[in-house]
Amino acid sequence: MDNNFFKNIEKKTGVNMQDVFNLANSLQGANFQDEKTVRNVIKKVSQIAGKPVSKDTEDKIVNSIVNGKEKLDFGTISKMINKK
After folding, report:
1. Which domain range does residue 13 map to?
2. Long-range pairs for 75-80: beta carbons < 8 A, 24 or more residues apart
3. Which of 17, 42, 62, 81 could lock 6 by a disulfide, CB 3.0 to 4.6 Å apart?
4. pLDDT digits 0-9 by tens, 20-63
């Protein structure tokens, strides 16, 4: 994709796209049925987005993903973080 496209996203969201790409690469082959893995992903997404996640919200997200109720992607976690 065009580099300007990503720069525009960074300007609008304040999210560093390189951080997003690095996180996405680190998730390849990860076991999302593992609670520790899911908690680490939530923490990384929270840091990238600049939105703190309460322990209660983190627990709800982990439970939902580990039990297969939700798929693990940025959209799902973002929606759950914003519900808090």
Report:
1. 3-83
2. 77/41, 77/42, 77/45, 78/45, 78/49
3. 17
4. 888 888 878 888 889 999 899 889 888 888 889 999 999 988 98
- For residue 4 the two structure tokens come to 């300007």
Euclidean distance between CA atoms 38 and 76, whole angstroms: 12
Which pTM was predicted? Answer: 0.68
Asked if 39 and 62 touch (Cβ cutoff 8 Å), the reply is yes
Cα dihedral value 27, 76, 13, 18, nearest 10: 10
d(CA 77, CA 55): 14
